[in-house]
Amino acid sequence: MDEFALIEALQARFTRDPSDLAPWIDLGDDAAVLRGDPRPSVLSVDASVEGVHFERTFAPPEDLGYRALMAAASDLGAMAAEPEAALLALTIAPGTDDAWLLAMADGYAQAAAASGLRVVGGNVSRGAQVSLTTTVTGRVPSGASPLTRAGARVGDDVYVSGRVGLAALGLAVIRSGSPPRSAAAQEAQAHWRRPRARIALGAALRPYVSSAVDLSDGLLQDAAHVARASGVGFELVLTALPTAPGFHAACEALELPGDATALHGGEDYELLFTAPPAHRGAIASLGADVTRIGCVWSAPDVMVVCRDGKPRALGEHAGFRHRW
Predict the structure, then answer these.
(1) What is the per-residue pLDDT for 102?
(2) Residue 38: its pLDDT value, please?
(3) CATH code where residue 191 lies
(4) One domain for residues 167 and 313
(5) DSSP 3-state assignment of 121?
(6) What letter would DSSP give residue 163?
(7) Where does the chain show beta strands of DSSP type E?
(8) Which residues, other chains included, contact 100 with Cβ-Cβ below 8 Å and sequence gap of 6+?
(9) What is the distance in angstroms between the CA of the first residue and the CA of the last residue of the chain?
(10) Does 113 share its domain with 244?
């Protein structure tokens, strides 16, 4: 059983009578939404575990703390929620240096300030590896609805923010043990170490967007999450994907397939979203760093129009998923 099979099994066991908890949406989105008067609450939790999500040699402790908080905050951006609070459950491995821990906490606090979250509590324990488990809360503005994965409609445009594949390239640069050899490699390494949660963008897009997800598992896999939740399919154009200048050369230098890295690389924490074509002008007027990369169609597949102009199913399951 892998991560997503387990999630489906847990959903079946944890789904409650709607009259009991009365959630706004079902289990399975980027965050839980609970009804509130007049502003619904948005809650999400994310874990960053040593040996799974990071090694201490990957980055200074400030950066590891920073990215742990931002990974959790990214879910609030995907739901277009206004950030409120964060709680940190910190597990400390034996022999962990006090100075390392405090530097990590400094980076965590920097990310909280940058994303508009206030750290209000948590828990400290010990274990075999260092782990940071973050719970974040936010609010949906009065009279508004959260963005979800389930609203994409046939004919909608598909967009992505920022540049895709950067985090995967950055991690490869870090794992190589060599300094970045190009501007693209340097940008990618910085992106992995200090990602940004797209909170302001999510809020700005709220009036125009039909569905949204943050890119944590990889573009194709996260697109499949939205398609499945919405009961539709996607057609994405490979040559439309926004990548950093020099991205493919930097991938080649590390023996990475550039197109596959852009399609499947996880932890970019950008937003993938859909919107009716009637909103193209409004979205463009925001001046945001977003790119239209495809459309929503009725076939229940995520297809990619490749460089030869032919649509292919390139395997949504190649993105990141935990296995045990």
Answers:
(1) 98
(2) 79
(3) 3.90.650.10
(4) yes
(5) strand
(6) -
(7) 32-34, 41-49, 82-92, 118-126, 131-139, 157-161, 211-214, 233-237, 271-275, 290-297, 302-305, 311-312
(8) 56, 61
(9) 7
(10) no
Token reading at 164: 């895709």
* Domain membership of residue 83 as a residue range: 3-139
Retrieve residue 146's tokens. 């959260």
Domain termination site, one of 80, 107, 139: 139
Distances (CA, A) of 72 to 49, 127, 159: 13, 21, 22
Whether residue 228 sits in one domain with residue 127: no
- pTM for the full predicted model: 0.90
Three state DSSP letters for 196-224 = CCCHHHHHHHCCCCCEEEECCCCHHHHHH
Sign of CA dihedral 144, 150, 156, 157: positive
pLDDT score recorded for residue 28 = 61
Look up residue 118 and give its two tokens: 């206030």
Residue-wise pLDDT for 17-41, tens only, equals 555 554 555 556 778 888 777 788 9
pLDDT at position 322 is: 44
For residue 129, give the CATH number of its domain. 3.30.1330.10
When divided into structural domains, the chain yields a total of: 2
- Contact predicate 193/291, CB 8 Å: no
- Give the pairing type, strands 233-237 and 302-305: parallel
Return the C-alpha torsion angle 240, 147, 141, 114, nearest 10: -50
Q: Tokens 């949504």 belong to which residue? A: 316
